[in-house]
């Protein structure tokens, strides 16, 4: 059966409509993330963040960043993934911003539903890695130990192409703080920072080592929507053939 130029044009138009709809739906994708801070004083245990997030490639926006953070001072001297460390739930993404110079988006997820982490007597914002360094890692609410809210966070970096490996400069900006019970040394919280960016390594000499991002497996609904689109395209082609 021969197809006229009109039939071909209609079929192509249908394909473009389906493709456009698929691209719109695919602008937001879900990813898995693993970030590691090397901890020389608690080897073979490191501080590790395991989480997921949604990324809008059109607006370069990170949302729903959440996961778990290991407390490397806890548990037996056994490395992840066979460890028995305490793991904190970080469920509140409260900070995010785009950095055009580094070519990506920062996002921080917290244990508590607020950013109160470090002592603010040094004039800092109470949470950022630089504020933590300036405060010597001292907990929020110091000097009263009972005023420590026990917060923790992981600060990660998502490049414009989330699957692209981070450069060393980007890795150096990663940071974490742990002011929960398993991360405290007196009034000082456990932290992980790089001297290159923040002027000092973590309170137990921890520093960012690596970050890996992988695409999450699409949900069944995604396949279902793709199937509907292909079925629609097939129906259009069949109708054009019958005509």
Describe the structure.
The protein has about 240 residues and is α+β, with helices and mostly antiparallel strands. Helix content is about 25%, strand content about 35%. The chain contains 5 helices and 11 strands. The strands form 2 sheets. Strands 5-6-7-8-10-9 form a 6-stranded antiparallel beta sheet, with no helix packed on it. The protein has a 5-stranded antiparallel beta sheet with strand order 4-3-2-1-11. Strand 5 and strand 6 form a beta hairpin. Helix 1 packs antiparallel against helix 5.
Q: What key attributes describe this structure?
A:
243 residues, single chain, 5 helices, alpha+beta, 5-stranded antiparallel beta sheet, 6-stranded antiparallel beta sheet, 24% helix, globular
Summarize the structure.
With 243 residues, the chain is of the alpha+beta class. It has helices spanning 5-26, 129-134, 168-171, 195-198, 220-242; strands spanning 28-38, 47-56, 61-71, 86-90, 92-99, 104-110, 152-159, 175-178, 184-185, 188-192, 207-215. The model is unreliable at 5-24 (pLDDT under 50).
Topology:
Blueprint: H1 5-26, E1 28-38, E2 47-56, E3 61-71, E4 86-90, E5 92-99, E6 104-110, H2 129-134, E7 152-159, H3 168-171, E8 175-178, E9 184-185, E10 188-192, H4 195-198, E11 207-215, H5 220-242
pLDDT < 50 stretches: 5-24
Overall 3D form:
globular
Structural class: alpha+beta
Helix content: 10-25%
Beta percentage is: 25-35%
Could you tell me the radius of gyration in angstroms?
A: 24 Å
Report the end-to-end length measured between terminal Cα atoms: 12 Å
- SSE order: HEEEEEEHEHEEEHEH
Question: Looking across the biggest beta sheet, what order are the strands in?
Answer: 5-6-7-8-10-9
- Tell how many strands the DSSP assignment holds: 11
Number of helices in the DSSP assignment:
5
């Amino acid at each position: 059966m021969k197809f006229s130029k009109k039939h071909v044009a209609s079929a192509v138009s249908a394909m473009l409509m389906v493709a456009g709809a698929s691209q719109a739906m695919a602008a937001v994708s879900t990813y898995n993330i693993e970030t590691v801070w090397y901890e020389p004083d608690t080897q073979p245990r490191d501080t590790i963040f395991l989480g997921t997030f949604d990324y809008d490639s059109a607006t370069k926006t990170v949302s729903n960043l959440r996961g778990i953070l290991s407390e490397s001072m806890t548990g037996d001297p056994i490395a992840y993934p066979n460890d028995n460390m305490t793991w904190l739930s970080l469920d509140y993404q409260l900070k995010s911003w785009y950095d055009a110079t580094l070519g990506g988006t920062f996002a921080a997820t917290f244990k508590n539903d607020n950013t109160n982490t470090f002592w603010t007597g040094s004039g800092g914002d109470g949470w950022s890695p630089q504020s933590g360094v300036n405060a010597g890692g001292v907990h929020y609410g110091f000097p009263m130990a009972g005023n420590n809210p026990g917060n923790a966070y992981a600060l990660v970096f998502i490049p414009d192409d989330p699957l692209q490996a981070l450069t060393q400069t980007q890795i150096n900006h990663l940071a974490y703080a742990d002011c929960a019970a398993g991360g405290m040394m007196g009034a000082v919280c456990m932290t992980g920072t790089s001297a290159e960016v923040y002027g000092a390594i973590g309170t137990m000499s921890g520093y960012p080592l690596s970050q890996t991002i992988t695409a999450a497996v699409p949900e069944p609904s995604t396949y279902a929507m793709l199937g509907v689109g292909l079925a629609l395209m097939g129906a259009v082609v069949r109708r054009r053939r019958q005509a």
